Amino acid sequence: MDDTPKTRESTMTVSERGRDSAYESRERTFMTELSDRDLSSMKRERTFLSTLSGLSTPRKKDPELDREKARMYWKLLRDSIKMGIEAVKKADMKTVAIQHGMHHVRKLNHDEFVKHVIYNKNTQEYLSVDTESVHVFHLDGRKKYSVYLEEQVNRLLYCSKVDQYVTWAGDDEFKLLSAEFEFLSCAQSPYKIKCLVYNENTNEVVTAGVGHIMCWCFRYCNRYLIQRKVVTDGLTSQDVFTHLALEDTASRQQRCYAVCGTAVAVFNLYQCQQLCYRKDLHARNITSLLFFNPLKNLVTASKDGSVKVWDDNWGLRMVFVGHTGAITDLVVYPYGPFIISSSRDCTIRVWSLETCDEVDKIDTEEEVDGIGSIIKQDHVFSYCSYHVDLWRTQHIHNLFTTMGSKVKSIKYTEHKGQLPPRAICICEDSAVRIVAPATGDVLTTVLLDSNRTIVDAVYAEAEETMFVALDKGDLVKAFTTNNPCTIREVFQPNERGEWYNCLCIYEYVVNPAIQYVTWQKTLKADSEGILALRPKRSIVPSTTYTNRTIVLGGRKDGHIAALDWETGLPYFKTDAHGMRGVISMVANYKESQIISAGRDNVVKVWRIFPFSEEALSPLMSFYCAQTPLHMATLKERLCVGFQEPATATYSVVMYNLVEKNRFDHRPDDDHIDDITGMACCPRMKVFASSSEDGTVKIWNEENSLIRIIKLNVAPHSVAFCSQRGDLLVGIGKHLHRIEYNHYMPKTYIFRMVSMQFPDPIKDESMSFNNEHLSLLNQRDLKRLKSAHSSLFRFDHFMDILSVEEEEELHREEREKEQIYAVLQARDNELLKIKSGELTRQKKPKINKKKVKSEAFKKYLNLFYRKTHDIKVKDPDDFDPDTYFLEEPEPEEEPYMPERGPLGFFPPRSAAVKSAPSTPVTAQSLDKDMKISREPTGIQSLPEVPAEEDLEEVKEEKKEEEEEDEQKPPMTYVINPSGFIPNSILVRLLWPADEMEKQKKKQQEWKPPSLTAEQLAQIEGARKKPEVEEEFEDEAKTWSDEEEEEPTPMLSKLMEKAKKPPTPEPSPEPEPEPPPPPKPKREIKPRAPIKKMVTRPLTPPKPPTPSPPPPPKEPTPPPPSPPRPPTPLPDFILQFDGTDWYKQFFSDPKSISKPWTMQSYLNNLLRVLRIADWPHKAGIVDAITLLHSQENFTNIADIVRVVMGFLAGPPSPNIRDPKERPFVESALKLLNALRIQSKEFLLELMALYLENDTDLRLLIHKILGDIGMQDPHRYFYREMDTWGVAGETHSMLVNMAEGWLDTWMGKFKEHLQATIDQLRSGGVQGMTRLPTRTGRRGKGILKKTPDEGEPRRRLSVTIDAPPDQSAIEHAQPIEAVNYFCELVREEELARMRKAQEKVPTPQPEGVKNTVLVLPHIPSKGSLLRLGETHTSKCHRHRETGFADVTLPPILPKRSLVEGFTPFVTLPTKKVYMNPFPSPADWYYEELQQPVLITLKMAPKYFVHELSYLHE
Question: How far apart are CA 430 and CA 428, in angstroms?
Answer without folding.
Answer: 5
